Amino acid sequence: MYPTLESMGVNSFENIEKYTLRYEGGFDVLKIYYRREKGSLLPKSKKFKFGRATRTVLADGGQQQYREISEPSLVVLRAVDELGRLLGQEFEDKQTKEDLLKELDHLERVVANKIVEIKEKIEKLS
Q1: Same domain, yes or no: 59 and 26
Q2: How far apart are CA 72 and CA 91, in angstroms?
Q3: Average pLDDT per run of 10 along the chain, which is 126 residues long?
Q4: Which of 24, 37, 50, 97 supports an S-S bond with 76, CB 3.0-4.6 Å?
Q5: Are strands 65-71 and 27-34 parallel, antiparallel or unpaired?
Q6: Residue 71 sits in the same domain as residue 114
Q7: pTM reported for the whole predicted model
């Protein structure tokens, strides 16, 4: 039914709530979010990183200049297509200001927690 998603280890299709796709550090990052009951031990999301294929193309036919372009992996394209069919919607590439602020807030919390964790490890070594 959804062979690409299944090959990625995604199997609880009925619980998929939404997904995001972004380009980060040379990779396409697909994040799938799930509906979970309060107190559930199952993860609320899964993140997948896909490398991009690069190829050299002729940039200007008259001067024989070439340039490298990167293209998304076929796997990520198929996964996004399957997710679109599964959720019955077209993928929105637009992010709202609110979405970006939420993402920034989440990142700040993750970094703060990681800093505390590393400081605790340093204290144990002293």
Answers
A1: yes
A2: 15
A3: 91 89 88 90 92 80 76 90 82 67 87 93 88
A4: 50
A5: unpaired
A6: no
A7: 0.63
